[in-house]
Amino acid sequence: MSRTQPQSIECAPQSGPFGLGDSSVYARWRADKLRHYPRNLEQQRVSVASLRRLNPSEREQIVRACRRTNFALYQTDTGVPSSMEDLRAFGKRLGLVHFDRHLWAPEEGIVTLRREVESSRARYIPYTDRAMKWHTDGYYNSTDNAVRGVVMHCVIPAAKGGGNWLLDPEMVYIAVRDANPAYIEALMQPDVMTIPENSLEPGVYRPAVSGPVFSLDPAGGDLQMRYTARTRSIVWKDDAITRDAVAFLEQLLTAPVSFAFRVRLEAGEGIVCNNVLHNREAFTDGADANRQRLLWRARYRDRIAGTSARQDGKL
Ligand SMILES: [Fe+2]
Q1: Domain 23-312: which CATH class?
Q2: CA 313 / ligand 1 centre spacing (Å)
Q3: Distance (Å) from CA 161 to ligand 1 centroid
Q4: Rounded Cα gap, residues 133 and 141, in angstroms
Q5: pLDDT tens-digit map of 85-113
Q6: Which of 11-20, 27-36, 154-163, 259-268 is the least confident region?
Q7: pLDDT (tens digit, 9 = 90+) per residue, 163-187?
């Protein structure tokens, strides 16, 4: 199915593992997920000789890692620094081709993230050295324009700090559904989380965007999550069950967070994921330019090819 056309979204499925009416299918999917979930980060690490020419074995290892937990860490040879062109080729080999065109995304689709001082982006938190709370990328997008795949490539790590915690949204879904299936129902409402108009970039008009926290990718039926732990500029649906569900999520994402992994990318390393939940620790840049944190980030409308549970007959 093409990603270029808006697609209708199935919000509250009746069947399949994410259907609340189908507890035996859910139980099977859940058991399978927990059985394969990695016990340590090393299981998720893949060495890649050249980002530009991802070979079939490297590709397979990345896909397998992502099927376990929706993300993989890759490590390139730092003796040969990668270019943005290499990163684009890497994404393409993984089926990541349709870039998310957000406000700050350049023509070529890959954003340079570093602490900005003078540009207008300096007031926008990813371009500062401040900590970022748990979120999925593009939480201010409509579900039709969901960010499904993300690559974060570290060119230069910070002198200090700047680590990320990563958490598979499917594990959050399990924790929420096990606590109370009615929370899932609340979080799948199409108007449960609203970003008011004009709330993110002063001076730039953006209409209000409402959407669910959990929804299903219409192409493959996989779970996708839209969430931010920010409390400013977020309006939650005002009913008791939503309040309880959101409070439960907040508590779930309070450290120590079960099933989350901490990553601190070194130069030449990166994360490729199906838009997993993540946060960022504050960081401190060094005085030299080569000690100032520099990351490249590419956001896509696509999931990583070969990671849909439907292909495994699990959906
Ligand atoms: Fe992010």
Answers
A1: alpha beta
A2: 31
A3: 16
A4: 18
A5: 999 999 999 999 999 987 666 777 899 99
A6: 11-20
A7: 999 999 999 999 999 999 999 999 9
Average pLDDT, the chain: 91
Q: Which residues crowd ion ligand 1, with CB under 5 Å? A: 137
Q: Where are the domains of the chain?
A: 23-312
**Angle at which helices 169-179 and 240-252 pack, to 10 degrees?**
130
Task: Write out the two tokens for 241.
Answer: 């069950």
Ligand 1 centre distance from Cα of residue 306 (Å):
23
Q: State mean pLDDT over 270-285.
A: 97
Q: Of 21, 38, 269, which is closest to residue 170 (Cα–Cα)?
A: 38
Alpha-carbon Rg for the chain in angstroms:
19
E-assigned strand segments in 179-239 = 193-195, 209-211, 214-216, 223-225, 235-236
Q: How far is the CA of 122 from the centre of ligand 1 (A)?
A: 16
Cα(280) to centroid of ligand 1, in Å?
8
Rounded Cα distance between 68 and 73, Å, is 13
For 131-145, how does the pLDDT look when each residue is reduced to its tens digit (9 = 90+)? Answer: 999 999 999 898 889
Are the CB atoms for 301 and 100 separated by under 8 Å?
A: yes
Å from CA of 282 to ligand 1 middle: 13
Ligand 1 center to residue 103 CA distance, Å?
Answer: 15
| Pair of tokens at residue 198 | 């004009």
